[in-house]
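The freezer alarm interrupted the setup, so I double-checked each line after restarting. Inputs confirmed:
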Amino acid sequence: MRRAALAALLSHWRARPLQLAMLVVGLALATALWSGVQAINAEARASYAEAAATLGQDRLARLVPADAAHIDEADFVALRRAGWRVAPVLEGRMRLGGERVTVMGIDPLTAPPQAGLAALTEGDGLAGFTTPPGRGFAAPETAAELAAADLEIAPARGIAPGIVIVDIGIAQTLLDAPGRLSHLQVHPDQPAARADLAAVAPHLEQRPPDDAGELARLTDSFHLNLTAFGFLSFAVGLFIVHSAVGLAFEQRRPVFRTLRALGLPGRSLMVLLVAELAALALLAGALGVALGYGVAAVLMPGVAATLGGLYGAEVAGSVVLRPEWWLSGLAIALGGTLAAAARDLWRTARLPVLAAARPRAWALISERRLALQLGAAVVLALVAVVLARVGGGLIAGFTMLGALLLAAALALPVLLYAVLRAAQALARGPVAQWFWADTRQQLPGLSLALMALLLALAANIGVGTMVSSFRLTFTGWLDQRLAAELYVTARSDAEAEAIRDWLAPRTEAVLPIWYVEGELAGRPGRVYSVADHGTYRDHWPLIDAGDAPWERVAAGEGVLVNEQLARAAGLWSGDGRLDLPGGPELPVVGVYSDYGNPQPQAMLGLDSFTRHYPDAPQRQHGVRAPPGAVPDLAAGLRDRFDLPAPNVTDQAEAKRISLAVFERTFTVTRALNVLTLGVAGVALLASLVTLSGMRLAQLAPVWAAGLGRARLARLELWRALALAGFTALAALPVGLVLAWVLLAVINVEAFGWRLPMHVFPADWVRLGALALVTGALAAAAPALRLARIAPAQLVKVFAHER
Amino acid sequence: MLLEIDRVEKSYATGDGMLPVLRGVSLGLEAGRSLALTGESGSGKSTLLHLAAGLDAPDAGAIRVHGRDIAGLGDTARAALRRDTIGLVFQQFNLIPSLDAGANLAFQARLAGRHDAALVRDLAGRLGLADFLRRYPEQLSGGQQQRVAIGRALAARPALVLADEPTGNLDEATGDAVLDLMLALVAEQGAGLLLVTHSPRLAARCDARAVLRAGRVA
Amino acid sequence: MNARLAALALLAAAPVHAQGFAGMGGDAEGFRLPERGAELRFPEDHGPHPEYRIEWWYLTANLEDGEGTEYGVQWTLFRAALAPGAAEGWASPQVWIGHAGLTSPDTHHAAERMARDGTGQAGVTAAPFAAWIDEWHMTGAAPDGADALDALELAAGAEAFGYRLSVEADGPLIFHGDDGYSVKSDSGVASYYYSQPHYRAEGVLRLPGGEVAVEGVAWLDREWSSQPLEGDQSGWDWFSLHLEGGVRLMAAQVREGAATDFVAGTWIEDDTATPLTREDLALTPLETATVAGRDVPVRWRIELPARDLDITTEPVNPDSWMEMFVPYWEGPVRASGSHTGRGFMELTGYE
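Predicted 3D structure, all chains:
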């Protein structure tokens, strides 16, 4: 019985392979984007975990300076001699063979056993590692990139990308930090007899193991962004699944009734249907996971570049098939399908055996249902407003976005219904009236696909507006901020001094850009020096300033902080006071925007800076000179001091680099956006194709009454265009609200900066055209089929007898 | 001659090859006359009606309406023929589901540019539809739907009314009433009626009768 | 003596230090070699000799608490050079390794520390005498005028154990071989080797059950060399024994496969050292025990006919396994037979 019943159920798909294909394609696409994003996230997280493991911070407590930028080596010896089993680490960013890397100096003899150190067992081992010039170890891909470095770098497994492990002594030389350490790792086993930390090194404090890792926290917002887009794509995909499954159930109601009438128990029918759906979901899910792997592999290099550029987080540029994402891909495909089918399953379960067998997919849209939908939309919109008022944090921001988008999606059919009704009322002539009436009647069948289109378009407008606003602000900001004509970085303090002496008579000004790393309001950040010079006063953009901020900074009476720090710690000019690491507490006299940098930052007058941080490296400088003299100056610097090319950067180059980092930041978001629009297009196509078979009963009377097939087909195309066009119009305000939320809520939470919103009507026109093209492409195949349909097919509607 | 069917042949492609449905049928119908076309299921009577309506084209032979051969017409011209000259009533799904009964009644007349509001009102009244004009097809009973279909076919004052089992979905009493109404209205307008039916009882009410058997007039 | 060289050599052959200690069995690669007839000078020679490849300060103590329970304590600092010479800071090519052991009849604790030279984390100074690695230390406490090693304070420990000892010598330094020039193989590989075997010791042991006051005897070995191993020497069995009547005996053999083993020893009586050779001394394993998955000979017969000595040694705890970077057996033993006594046994190369 069951086998026969199953065969009867499955015969539906055999008769409608296109419908089956749409269901599978929709689900596969949805799963693909979701699992692709998950694959990217999983890959990045694995890299962070590896980085955290390399640094030992996932497992090992560490001793860090309470209020200084570094630890003296003598502290290490004193602690060891007092019974503390600690191991020294010196970390720093530097350029090796033209690539920026994190150099990590360790002492192999005291370092607790940990990932990456096994590498030291190869080659000539300890002697080669510790004896100058030493040897570095890095992940194979990093080692390959650093082939041009002066230091010999051997590939080793278990080291996170972008990190070069060297002996502690070698690191002190490379980073020009003699006698200095960044932190001490605390071995998990400690002798019972051990002096108190306060007695041995009172200026150090112990931090517990940090399993999340600074990178993971820092990049959380980025991954949440990706996840949100992945989920949006999946939701759009589910619209396809929902409509395809809904149709399949609707069309098979006669079969269900017949099977029930023939004695198949309702429970068995449900079991068969759920099994059928599960099999379809797994098939499509597997397909989607495979596609997702492709998506991830294509996007991963961009993501890796973004994470590297924005956060300094090194992530492998390739994707590994990890069970955590492919399993979750299959699970969400299965869960999504069952969720999409829940309503239909529920209805089928309650279907009376003698219910009308005729499909009711073409039932007139119920105004009561529209009212309910509108009510739900209003409630969701209110939730969004409340969240905007009282919510805080990224999760609330995204929840608000979700509520907003869902509200808009629910309201769309109501809006379209009203618009089409008005159009019908205004229309003159029977064809026009029928066109609008018929379009309105399509709404129930198409509204899910149109909602998907709305979401995709709104996301496109919102994200596009955000990115473009960002770019506009960012380029303007770069022009102001990169005021110096030339940027020079010396390799040592002594060389820097010689460079300053050499430059002084040749240029208008040499502006030191020195910094120390330290903790600002509880997060790792940097304190920069700022010279008392017109360059800053005239160009540096302040978004909040007290009286005479530059004069007070120059006099050492105050600090400037970046927007991220100001927002995170509530430090603004007026009453904000910043506790400088290892330095004094000073009032905040101004806030500057600092795009592209997720970390807190403060600027201190040059005199105060050198007084408080005499040990800070003094190597980076901005040079003011007539633009015409810059090429000669740069060439002269490189020749005179034999500086590597990246150490001398002119303004244009600096802008180019900054903009490149910026562009990469949103590559992935944009790519996902386009893919989401593609999925929405497929949703529309799926709906139109699956409905086109049933459309015949509607079109045949019109055809019989004297409208040719070609004209009907054209009208079908126009209908899709009209719906896509109205949806695009509706998407515009939704997209702008979305942009506002992204700029004013999400970005502030995620990156710490707020951007002014700019609108780009030309982009809307482009996107509107894209929506129309999407609609036209989706409608093209069904319309073409209609134009070429055999009259006999149409005639069949009226009678099955020939 | 209003309608002249001359040695018409038509085959359909099936899984087992070409299936001949009409094998040289010839018929004629004068204006103001009614002709019943009967025959067993599969005898080709609906196909013949569809060809006469310009819904489909014959493989061979000629179909002349008002003396003009419509067999070679293109899709657009055939659509114009249906719109301007022919009124069609089928067994089911006659109506445009997105339009209410009133709009359905007037649809073809407006399409043909011959809309006569007084005539539509009159037809609606005589067909007993005056109270249902704002209803949509799926809100109407089968008999009501068929009456709307007849009204729509006649509202455009067609020269030729083609009806394919117009009462096939109705019970006998309703069917008789609907048929009576149609015959009366066709007679009033002086149109010709070709009625496809398998019911000898209905066929008997027409002026003439032709029987199709295996694709030929018996 | 040589056994410790073996331990360090094995350490050197282990992967982490791979080539760093490599070539130990080969030529001296710029390191100095011991010379016969060179006179040792003090206190300088109590300090490190970075121009030689390896060196150690090695103290073992046999102790007893008030209830007669026997304990053994080991405090060792190895110096190993990746290249000859020392320097300030991380660039110094010297490495320090500390081993601490504490053995009771039913438990054996061991710990290991490693450190780079040049930072002060570990090192040895001759005057005033101090040897240290991390918080472990062995510090001179001798009065002015006495030898720097005559009295020492030492301490070491880890999570689960620890000890503090004071030792005081009632006899002079003893020079093995030819006035401290100690030959290790038939082909003449040699080291400088002297001992202070005359310590009385007292102190406190920290055990999981609490602190225990102990007293007993101790023995310090000092040895440095650059070329300690022959390629076919697989391991070493070494004894330092405090026998009745104030006699001390160092006895060792280097296992050389199936061929005759290289045997050496020193008979110490009335502050006088007499070198022993293969003709004088015989060491025979009597019984093995399975320790850390290996068969280790823990009972031995030692015969020295010229002195009418025929004794059997029993371990206080057969499971005195030092699970170090390079593992070995080191622990207290009891002697019985023609003479009674106590001492330490070290067994290496039992893979």
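Quick read of the result. The longest strand of chain B covers residues 17-29.
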